[in-house]
Design brief:
Elements: H1 2-19, H2 27-33, H3 39-63, H4 69-90, E1 97-101, E2 104-107, H5 108-129, H6 142-163, H7 168-177, H8 183-205, H9 213-234, H10 239-264
Antiparallel strand pairs: 1-2
Length: 265
């Protein structure tokens, strides 16, 4: 199973290199179901893996002039604070046993994976639909758009903090539709924001968990290698069709996780 897990880690990196935002959403399921790590610990490990791989991807985009650093830092500030506070203060307070529904016990691991499955379903719909979006205009309604940006930043911060997911499928539409950023620049900028959010969130976990650094760094390096493979493949393959195909796979995985956690558990 460990060998399968490392192969899956390569595929995580490849998917991130191929489809960009949303490509790392399989990290937590791989850690839980293949490596056998607890869901809460997996969200912590995922923050480091997603953050590191996104940082490598962002550097490649930056070299090609496709990262708006000022926007990443401005937008990332609210979400980074949210992620850090969520991991530092909120996650340690969540009890192991949450509540009962009749005879059904809802535990923290079960709720974590159920919420992650719902997140996968939402992300998959965005990947499958894949429609072209027209850039918005920040200045056209400055007050309302600033509120939208603030709420989006906090929402993405909570998503990253609670579930260990980068939130690229939420972030890219915000950059395009609210800030009016071109799609290619939005993808590169989102990678930098995801990297900052995830690594800051992981820093909030230090002291709460015993980290297996050898395992974590090994999986991260394998995933980073996958990014370079994915980047090479992306130049030769139809990225739009790939994203739709990956979306269908994520949809199937989300349904499987919900079935396993709610029906088979």
């Amino acid at each position: 199973m460990e060998t399968i897990g490392y192969i899956a880690s390569v595929l995580i990196g490849i998917s991130l290199g191929l489809v960009g935002g949303g490509g790392s959403i399989l990290t937590v399921p791989v850690l839980v179901y293949i490596f056998g790590i607890s869901p809460v610990m997996s969200t912590s490990y995922s923050l480091f893996i997603v953050g590191s791989t996104s940082l490598v991807g962002a550097y490649g985009k930056y070299r090609r002039g496709l990262v708006n650093v000022k926007t990443a830092l401005f937008f990332g500030l609210s979400s980074m604070v949210t992620v850090y506070l969520t991991r530092m203060l909120l996650v340690p307070l969540i009890p192991q046993n949450l509540f009962h529904i009749g005879h059904f016990q809802v535990t923290e691991p079960l709720l974590t994976m159920a919420l992650f499955a719902v997140l996968m379903l939402v992300a998959s719909i965005g990947m499958i639909s894949g429609g072209q979006t027209q850039p918005g205009c920040l200045e056209c309604d400055l007050g309302r758009n600033i509120v939208k940006l603030g709420l989006s930043a906090v929402g993405i911060g909570l998503t990253t903090g609670l579930l260990g997911a980068g939130g690229g499928f939420l972030l890219i539409p915000t950059l395009v539709l609210v800030l009016g950023m071109p799609m290619r620049e939005a993808v590169g900028t989102s990678l930098l924001i995801i990297a900052l959010n995830s690594l800051v969130g992981f820093a909030g976990d230090l002291g709460h968990f015993v980290i297996d650094w050898y395992f974590l760094l090994t999986v991260t390096l394998v995933a980073v290698a996958g990014i370079f493979i994915g980047g090479l493949l992306a130049r030769k393959l139809d990225s739009g069709q790939l994203k739709k195909s990956f979306g269908w796979f994520v949809l199937a995985m989300g349904c499987f996780i919900l079935f396993k956690e709610l029906i088979l558990s």
